[in-house]
Every structure is written in C-alpha cells, then in structure tokens.
Amino acid sequence: MSAGAARLRRAPWRHPALALAAGLLLGTLFICVVARPLRVAGSSMAPVLADGDVVATLVVPGAFRLVEEGDLVVARRPAAPRGGGPLLVKRVARIGGGTARPLFELAGDNEKASEDSRTYGPVPAEAIEGLVLFRLYPRPFGIGGRERRGGADRTPPRSGG
User: Fold this and answer.
1) Alpha-carbon span 107 to 116, nearest angstrom
2) What is the pTM of this model?
3) What is the mean pLDDT of the chain?
4) 132, 73 in Cβ contact below 8 A?
C-alpha cells in the first residue's frame, strides 16, 4: 500500500476533490430536499427581493410554528385551496389571533406594488407554507440580519391602511 493511499483512507476530508464533491452533494441535497427554490414574481418585495430573484424556502408541515414577526414567508393566497393558486412571498407584519388559531398579517415591502393583508385581511396558519431562508440568485445569501428580521434601519411595514 502506498503512503498516499494510507493517507487518503485515514483522512478523506483532507483531499480537496473529495471535500469539494461532498460539499456539492450535500448542497444539492439540501436545495432539492430541504430548501425548495422559488422564483419571485413581481416587485411587491422590493428592494429586498426583485422580480426574477430565486429564493430557497423551507417548506414543511406546520411551518407557521417557525415564523416570527419580520420573517419572509411563502403563503397561499387566502381564497386559494391548499395546493392551488399562486404562492406569495411576503413579510409577516403581525401575528395575532392567539395561540389556538393564529392569524398572520402579511405585507409586501413595496406598499404601492403589493397585494397583501391590507387588501385581503389576515391569513390563517394553514396558508403559511414555508419560510424564506436565503436568496439563491442573482445575489446569493443576501437575505439576512436586518433585511430579514427588521431592525434599526429596516422595520416591518405597518398593518392597516
């Protein structure tokens, strides 16, 4: 057995090609299985998200339990049955309705271009399908910190009219 083969067998993660392949495989599995990609349509979330941006979303049953005010979520339009109708990407402006039947007020960051809870009212927990994790394209990983949660220079929009 050569010294190189013994080294490879003891520490395969130290081989750059194996580390790269493992990273690509894990990244692909994460994007395909855990984080579903979703293309943003429209300018309702500008300037954080633009028309054509692709975001990674965590879509799981009971996703509403993970949501906090200020988060970006994927939701179904309230009139659309589960599995039907377009998906919306909106910011959670307010959570109300109590713990038994929470209601979510959703708002687009660009009030002039957004149809949201100011138009159709709060949405039930069942309408929340997932949480936006980060932007995949064209500026990867651009959603985070103050952009995602609000903060000193970026606060969630007010609900109401």
Assistant:
1) 5
2) 0.69
3) 79
4) yes
